[in-house]
Amino acid sequence: MNLAQSAAITTLGALFPLLNGGTGVIYSGTMPATPETTATGTALVTATFAATALSGSITYVSPDVQGSLAFSSTSLSPSASGTAGYMRLYESGGTIAVADLTVGTTGTDVILGTTTISTGTTVNITSAVLKLPAV
Q1: Residue of 43, 18, 12 whose CA lies nearest to 28
Q2: Domain-by-domain residue ranges, the chain?
Q3: Which whole number is the average pLDDT over 1-17?
Q4: Is 132 helix (H, G, I), strand (E, B) or coil?
Q5: Residue 6 belongs to what H/E stretch?
Q6: Residue 135's pLDDT is what?
Q7: 48: buried, middle or exposed (CB in 10 Å: 19+, 13-18, 0-12)?
């Protein structure tokens, strides 16, 4: 399937309101096959999305349309130690998973200062984006 840019922008735009006031939980381990699959690994740190989860606008950056996530804070205190594997995004209330994102220090959906997370230190989210492919 090739999704038109305008359709991808509309589709991605419909996802952001689901995240308003929700959370993004960084887990250790490998990302599950789908967000409907029970989260695996240890929950290392939780970030809360701003009341409006979209920061700025959705734009086309070849080959994707993308929008940045807005957090209430990007400096976080971890609840456990481990290596960041993925971030699961939850609607407000924290029970309905919306998406899973890759996590790393470069070239991933969520960019962290380091993927080594330790209690007693601060985890810094440099950026986080949702993307859909478009032509």
Answers
A1: 43
A2: 5-133
A3: 92
A4: strand
A5: helix 5-19
A6: 81
A7: middle
> According to the model, what pLDDT value does residue 94 have?
82
SS (H, E, C) 67-127: EEEEECCCEECCCCCEEEEEEEEECCCCCCEEEEEEEECCCCCEEECCCEECCCCCEEEEE
Cβ proximity of 30 and 42 under 8 Å: no
Closest CA to 77 of 26, 16, 22: 26
Provide the 8-state DSSP code for 41: S
Cα distance between residue 14 and residue 135, in whole Å:
19
Q: With a cut of 90, say whether residue 97 has pLDDT above it.
A: yes
**69-93 average pLDDT score:** 96
pLDDT at position 45, please? 98
Phi then psi dihedrals of residue 32, to 5 deg: -60, 165
Radius of gyration of the chain (CA): 14
Mean pLDDT of 41-51: 97
Q: Which residue has the tokens 């205190």?
A: 77
Q: Are 105 and 117 in contact (CB under 8 A)?
A: no
